[in-house]
Amino acid sequence: MSSSNVATMKKAVQQLRFEASINRVKVSQAAVELQQFCLQNALQDPLLTGVSSSTNPFRPQKVCSFL
């Protein structure tokens, strides 16, 4: 075995050990937490509540015209 091959394998083992040490969250638990977050923040979500025309930076600009 060449030294570069051994070094590559050591890096792979190190990466696998790192990935194995990461704490995992079950999908069902993540879904419950996401649902709770969405419900808690629904009143502040402009996509759900809408944006008032006075605070909307994308509203059509008023045109002034002098006759």
UniProtKB/TrEMBL annotation:
Q: Which residues form a coiled coil?
A: none
Membrane topology label: Lipid-anchor
Task: Recite the UniProt keywords alphabetically.
Answer: Cell membrane, Lipoprotein, Membrane, Methylation, Prenylation, Transducer
UniProt superkingdom: Eukaryota
- Which GO cellular component terms, listed alphabetically, does the Swiss-Prot or TrEMBL entry include? heterotrimeric G-protein complex
* SMART domains hit by this protein: G_gamma, GGL
Where found in the cell?
Cell membrane
Q: Which InterPro entries match?
A: G-protein_gamma, G-protein_gamma-like_dom, GGL_sf
All residue ranges annotated as the G protein gamma domain in the record: 2-67
Q: Name one GO biological process term.
A: G protein-coupled receptor signaling pathway
Gene Ontology MF terms in the entry: G-protein beta-subunit binding
Q: Quaternary state and partners of this protein?
A: G proteins are composed of 3 units; alpha, beta and gamma.
The protein's job, in short, is: Guanine nucleotide-binding proteins (G proteins) are involved as a modulator or transducer in various transmembrane signaling systems. The beta and gamma chains are required for the GTPase activity, for replacement of GDP by GTP, and for G protein-effector interaction.
Q: Which family does the record assign?
A: Belongs to the G protein gamma family.
What name appears for this protein in its UniProt entry?
Guanine nucleotide-binding protein subunit gamma
To which species is this protein native?
Answer: Fundulus heteroclitus
The lineage, from the top, is: Eukaryota, Metazoa, Chordata, Craniata, Vertebrata
